[in-house]
C-alpha cells in the first residue's frame, strides 16, 4: 500500500488565494482548485466570475474531486447583503478512492493557506444550488 501524502501549495498560489479572499467585488466569484497528481501540488484550475451555481456545476468534473473557493453574494432575509468566503469540497460518489483520500488529506492544508473557515462537503453535484448553499450558510451563523 502506498503512503498517503499531503499535496503542497506554493507561496504564489497561497498569496493568490489570500488576495481572492480580500478582493472587493459585488459579484459571486469562484476559484476551482485541483491537485496535480504527479507534482502533488494544489493549483487553481479555473477562475469564474459572476456565474450561477448551476453554471459552476456544469463546469465541474462529475467523477473527480475538486475544491471550490467562493465568495458568494448572499442576501439575507432582513435585506442585508453579505459575501461569505467558503470552500466547497466536491467528492462525487464515482470518484476513485485514492483521489478522494488525496483530496481529504490535503483539505486542512488548503483551508489553512487560503484562510477559509466555512467548509461544505458536496457528494453529489446535482445538489449544488443556491438553496443548498444558503441552507449550509444558515447553519453556520
UniProtKB/TrEMBL annotation:
Family annotation (PROSITE patterns): ADF_H (PS51263)
A GO molecular function held by the record: actin binding
Cellular localisation: Cytoplasm; Nucleus
Domain ADF-H as annotated: residue spans: 3-138
A Pfam match: Cofilin_ADF
Alphabetized Gene3D superfamilies for the sequence: Severin (3.40.20.10)
Keyword vocabulary terms for this entry: Cytoplasm, Nucleus
Predominant subcellular localization, coarse grouping: cytoplasm
Gene Ontology terms describing biological process: actin filament debranching; negative regulation of Arp2/3 complex-mediated actin nucleation
Gene Ontology CC terms: cortical actin cytoskeleton; nucleus
Family in the record: Belongs to the actin-binding proteins ADF family. GMF subfamily.
Protein name, per record: ADF-H domain-containing protein
Species this protein is from: Schistosoma margrebowiei
Amino acid at each position: 500500500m502506498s503512503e498517503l501524502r499531503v499535496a503542497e501549495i506554493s507561496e504564489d498560489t497561497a498569496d493568490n488565494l489570500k488576495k481572492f479572499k480580500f478582493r472587493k467585488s459585488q459579484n459571486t466569484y469562484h476559484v476551482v482548485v485541483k491537485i496535480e497528481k504527479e507534482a502533488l501540488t494544489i493549483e487553481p484550475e479555473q477562475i469564474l466570475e459572476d456565474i450561477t451555481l448551476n453554471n459552476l456545476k456544469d463546469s465541474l468534473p462529475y467523477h473527480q474531486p475538486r475544491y471550490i473557493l467562493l465568495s458568494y453574494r448572499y442576501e439575507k432575509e432582513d435585506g442585508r447583503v453579505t459575501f461569505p468566503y467558503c470552500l466547497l469540497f466536491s467528492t462525487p460518489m464515482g470518484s476513485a478512492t485514492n483521489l478522494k483520500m488525496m483530496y481529504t488529506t490535503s483539505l486542512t492544508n488548503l483551508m489553512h493557506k487560503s484562510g477559509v473557515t466555512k467548509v461544505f462537503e458536496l457528494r453529489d453535484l446535482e445538489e449544488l444550488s443556491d438553496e443548498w448553499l444558503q441552507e449550509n450558510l444558515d447553519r453556520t451563523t
